[in-house]
Amino acid sequence: MKAREIAFKILCDIEENNNYxxxxxxxxxxxxxxxxxxxGLATEIVYGVVENKYYLDYVINKLSKIKTQKLSICVKILxxxxxxxxxxxxxxxxxxxxxxxxNLVKKYDKRSSGFVNxxxxxxxxxxxxxxxxxxxxxxxxxxxxxxxxxPWMIKNFINSFGRDFTEDLIEANNEKPSIYLRTNTLKISRxxxxxxxxxxxxxxYKVSIIDEAIKVENLxxxxxxxxxxxxxxxxxxxxSMMASKVLxxxxxxxxxxxxxxxxxxxxxIATLMxxxxxxxxxxxxxxxxxxxxxxxxxxxxxxxxxQNFDASILDENSVDxxxxxxxxxxxxxxGIIRRKPEIKYKSKAEIKDLPVLQRKILxxxxxxxxxxxxxxxxxxxILDSENIEVINNFxxxxxxxxxxxxxxxxxDLDNQEKGYLKIYPNIHGMDGFFIxxxxxxx
Length: 442
Ligand SMILES: C[S@@+](CC[C@H](N)C(=O)[O-])C[C@H]1O[C@@H](n2cnc3c(N)ncnc32)[C@H](O)[C@@H]1O
Hints:
Blueprint: H1 3-17, H2 21-29, H3 36-51, H4 53-63, H5 73-88, H6 94-108, H7 113-125, H8 127-131, H9 139-146, H10 151-161, H11 163-172, E1 179-183, H12 190-199, E2 203-206, E3 213-217, H13 226-229, E4 233-235, H14 238-247, E5 254-257, H15 264-272, E6 278-283, H16 289-299, E7 304-308, E8 322-328, H17 348-351, H18 354-367, E9 369-379, H19 388-397, E10 401-403, H20 413-416, E11 420-423, H21 425-428, E12 433-440
Helix pairs in contact: 1-2, 1-3, 1-5, 3-5, 4-5, 5-6, 5-7, 6-7, 9-10, 10-11, 14-15, 18-19
Active site: 380
Family: Belongs to the class I-like SAM-binding methyltransferase superfamily. RsmB/NOP family.
Pfam family, one: NusB
């Protein structure tokens, strides 16, 4: 099977089963023998089509008498793929985009091939006009169509950040995120790892704000990389690494991570503790625990104990027991749209109850902290309602906790003195994140 056909199958899977693109891509690529070039093109088309879904449907609806809601999934996806290639992929000629798409329609829905052919040829005859978003007098609909976002999200961003910041943010969210590695400092130093990665032909750069972080280009098929299998590194975005750095756990202490799967921060905390003391790593979903255990074992950590526990329930046995507690709570994910573009289409209803759950988890987590101990709250979203507002509401009712200045990293100088970090993809070039550091003072 070639790139476009694989992309088509993956996109059908996403559309029919509401799967996340990264999960669908991994599932379909597993055990599939294809060249790196085909893998690259298929991945590019899948992410591109998901990222630009509203825009691509807008273009289809300009030209088709049958609106996208009425088209069969197969025809809709193939049209989106064809238009995506014409509008965004300069390396592919318009004629190749049309012919390859029509060939696939002939294979999967023969009677629609004339219809698809006519639409795509119409676009290439009059590209500038047809590909333009000509929505006037409704800025929210204009941005929502051009950048493919649920309109409520655009409205929310404009209210919170203003018009210019919003366009900057949603443009940055369409960029490909860099890949970062976290050195397993128990096994190797960052400089030694950099040498080994270079010997493997990879392009690598030191990251200044995190001692153990490395930015890497052209890393493919990570699971089968020998250095990865040896446990010399793990994959993690910089903002996520920052959470454990800010928590800054000391050797021989007791730490608890109440929402820990797949284990990125748990294993970082355990490594920062130099494989001493104890890290209890919990998650409510039993099937996710093996992801944590796999990373713990691969990295050679022996100070982590993985447990199945619901953080929204108070565990009386853990009260006052821990020096460090991390609540990296479930959230709307609006900071990681670059990695999971389908988040752009979440409805308001889907995320409205999150602050209540987040507050509950934070409240319980706080009970486990010893006097003098640290509590870190983090999310990968940029909405204040899930971030600083949860913290402020918590502090109103818990005067035994205080926000403490963050001096372990230097990224958000405006706020870190106040005890929290707000990270944005368009400003910091990292996943959008929120980190608040609290101390139990009595
Ligand atoms: C943001 S993710 C955690 C990421 C993780 N800390 C890491 O760095 O790899 C939030 C996690 O919370 C878990 N979760 C959701 N509801 C929970 C609950 N009530 N109790 C415990 N864990 C929960 C989810 O399974 C999810 O893995």
